[in-house]
Amino acid sequence: MDERKLEELFRDSVQSVPPATFDEHDVARASRRITARRRMTAVGGTVVAAGVLAGGVFLTLPQQQPVTSQQAQPEVAPASPRSEDGPGIFSQRSGRCGPDAQVAAAVTKQLPEAAATAPVAPPSCPSGAKAASFVLREGPAAGSVTVIVSPAGTVPPDQATPGDTRQPDGTQQSVRQTRSGKLVVVRSDPDEGSPAAPYSTRLPALAGDLAGQF
């Protein structure tokens, strides 16, 4: 077979090949899909790797222990004992009380002469009592008028019985029982050298009036 015949045969075989079922647009779209799929796969792998790494860090971190302060807490000193009758009462161990504002106001109402002086604390009073004392002068008589309101059973024996008494040193005293069962003791103690105790004649009325208020 000569060359011319072979050339004709090859040309006929090429013309008999069926046309392609895709074009360049199909190839471009397929290429974009493959590229996007590869990117998604890469991103997914990165996320998984990051999650595994974070989990490993979480598992390896030591648990924090609560910090406990080693400093000693300051001790709170117990409150000193006080009377249940209100303010102005000192410790029971001191043997002193007042001046109590309520008692002082009641005294100055019944004995206006006492309003000109400031109330002071008496030298001593029973446990749980409240009191007020006034340094007064009535003419030549000078001394102090003291009122003590205390629970029954806490007063000295010479103040436990209601009544009016005069002691050898010139002290005048009136004792009355209150509506609540307490005792009101009103005393007038003369100063040294004073001829009499101030306002001694008014003590019974003062004690009776105060007994009705406490």
List the topology elements.
Elements: H1 3-15, H2 24-60, H3 101-110, E1 130-138, E2 141-150, E3 163-166, E4 172-177, E5 183-190, H4 203-211
Antiparallel strand pairs: 1-2, 2-5, 3-4, 4-5
Keywords: Membrane, Transmembrane, Transmembrane helix
Biased composition (Polar residues): 162-180
Region (Disordered): 65-101, 149-202
What does this structure look like?
Keywords: Membrane, Transmembrane, Transmembrane helix. Helix content is 32%, strand content 17%. The protein is of the alpha+beta class and 214 residues long. Among the domains are: 30 residues; 111 residues, no CATH class. It has a 5-stranded antiparallel beta sheet, with helices on one face. Strand 3 and strand 4 form a beta hairpin. The protein is rod-shaped and about 175 Å long. 24% of the residues are buried. About 17% of the residues have low confidence.
